[in-house]
Amino acid sequence: MLAYLIRRLFAAAVMLVVIVMVVFGIFFLVPKWAGVDIASSFVGKQADPAAVEAVRQKLGLSDPIYSQVWEFFKGIFAGRTYSGGGDVTHCAAPCFGYSFRSEQAVWPVLTDRFPVTLGLALGAAVLWLVFGVAAGVLSALKRGTIWDRGAMVVALSGVSLPIYFTGLISIAVFDIGLHWIDSQYVPFTDNPARWFESMILPWATLAFLYAAMYARITRATMLEILGEDYIRTARAKGLKEQVVIGKHAMRSTMTPLLTMLGMDLGALIGGAILTESTFNLPGLGRAVLDAIKNQDLPIILGVTLITSLAVLLANLVVDILYAVIDPRVRLS
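^ that's the sequence the OP posted. Answer follows.
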């Protein structure tokens, strides 16, 4: 187990370096090759030439590429000092960039928005796992019955309907119409009870989409596993159906679900743009949307890095859970 963990941690460290280099290339090299003035993108198109030149000096855009990559990478772990145009700007570690348009470091913006997105992603993940997996298992065990067909119809609806549609419908029905839930967002630190109430509709809306996909995957995987020899052997030994399903079949079913969960949860931590926009949640998704409207490139760069690192971390956790669920993985 220890050797397996060391291999996975080493692979994650290598992937982290690759991610940083790829993100640097997307935001600094590709625009340069396309003939775009990178300094203008960071300071805004309406800035005067002196401000653009100052930003060019601060970012070191005239330095060799390897020097720019090193300063970019080092800033994440040790901070960075931007000097040029007669002034000096310090960005404390971890430095995910600096917005010269709003004159603030990107990291405080990310940490201010991150708890909202994290709460949305984790709450929705619990709902879609519970209801999605339960619906998928029930459909597999009741194959061909009205329960199976009804669950799959609901699942197909969840996949087909866009979040902004189901979100607005839920607000219109449960908030404006019935007054059962107040969907106006309240920070957790202000009022935990009101925060929980305001997150019910976003959680349910986001979970409806993902639960539908998890239900379909669970059903298909469970049907395949129930036909395996070891399941028939377990039943032939006289084991109770609950033991056969819960201990043997579900253990194999969890492997593809964990793979999906790692990707989905990691991506959502980077911001659920449609859900946050529909329910006016001040999370990372809204931060990206606002940054796109304001052409604030450093914010977009910072959220891109956070999203990539979240996916990397989520998949590292999934790899560890693989080894717990299936010991054969440790030897692979």
